[in-house]
Input
Amino acid sequence: MTLATAQPLCAGTFTKSAIAPELGLDALTREVARAQVGRDLFANPYATVTIGHTDIYDRFPYLESRQFQVVSDPRWNRLIVGERGHGLSAFDGRGGATGALREPRGLAVDENDRVYVADTGNDRIVVLQASTELDAMTLSPLYEIRGLSRPFDVAVSDGGTPFRAGDDVLYVTDTGRNRLVAYALEAGAPRLVATLGDLGSGQDRFAGPMAITVGRANSGNTGDVYVADAHNRRLVHLRHEGSSLRWVGEAPVGADVVTSLETDQWGNLYASAPNQGVVRKFNAELSAVAELRDGLSRPRAFHVPFSTVRDHRDGRVERVGEPTAISIDEWASGAGLRMWSLGVELNDLRVDGEGAPVAHFALTDHANVSFEIADAATGRMLVRRNAGAMEAGVHTLALTPEDLQAAGGNGQFVLRMSAASGYSGGATANAQTPLQLDGAASLLPMRASLLGSAPNPAAPVTRIAFLLPANGREHVSLRIFDAQGRRVRGFDRGFVAGLNQIAWDGTDEGGRPVRAGVYLYQLQVGGEKFTQRLVLVR
Output
């Protein structure tokens, strides 16, 4: 078996898309605004959220979908609101119950169309109720949260249960005090439940926390909280547990200032760094997976919309992440607001292994992965297998003895891999690499390795694959832990040299179903430990 460099066939993590195709507009810029409405719309657009609704019927019109934008402008002390491609209006709070806005920056929206505004200059959070009728949207003040010092950003969590009241939480970067604040959003009034931070550079300390977002797994939020810590040039991963925010880890962000953090349907993060002119994408473990530079000009925000989808045929209601994003750049002649289509790339494909062949590759987004082995001379497909759903990041996939036997054992082949975007109707990324198999391909591996789980997310059954070396005498165990590190399930017998695949059905040692959420699985072979993450959904 020989090593070779992959030849990527297609890619598309970020693809430009028209912001108002019915008007023929690729982007909303200062030049476009002056041409269309005769004036500037913004002085300094900073953040945006989307209020989206899709209704499905069993008769005409069958499908109705509307998306409204709210954009903050801290220089002109107002919000701009309206439906894409239609009329816009301004909200500055004057004359309302909560008074005038002053330097509004970060925004968040929940499943009930409540908009949370970091009103930085007034040292508060303002909560507004959005109401839509046809192509118009209005904002009505509900209440304010005081006792803060120059809050720059907000994030709201549905507690993992969209449309169920009682467990929603609001997170605020209390930037002036270098701390984070969490409020339970209860019916009467928000209740302070947790704080973390003080000025510093170590664990549990911040120096200019400017952006915040919450984790996500499919249709609901997780207990994960992510913070951009400006002067420490890092992203911080926290876990909200009861009345405390637990420090999980950190990663360098490669920027002096991050003004926006966002998560998509799969829990990937997007960090906007205006001074570096880049939006960097990370997976939920804070491993960098992609970046966007082309087409940006000092990006302040990168927003992934979520819509409420209501199926009137069966009464089902869910929150669905859109396969699109909106970037906010500096307001200039050729820069402003732009739309992007989100997709996946399959990179760095190679095959190696001291005996059993293993494919290594990287994904830039959640995708359904499959592969085939073809004859190099004729192109005839010999083996095809579905490897299941995989998250953004680096992956390994072992070719099984059955794969090699079906391919014919020895000779020149091509390994082709496909990654179909997890978004409905999304494109498929492809890559291929030459593969030479000889007698060594049937040998057992020389060392242990944890290959991953598929499908991931598990719903609820998944198979965890790993390789064990020949003549290994070390004790082998596979353990599953919850996000707090508590053991949930263990496997320690029936393993063989070579490829092992252990099915976990989402139950604990007593056979009881465990809750949906993030879990860790750990393979221990003697003194070596290998750990990976999976998401369980129900």
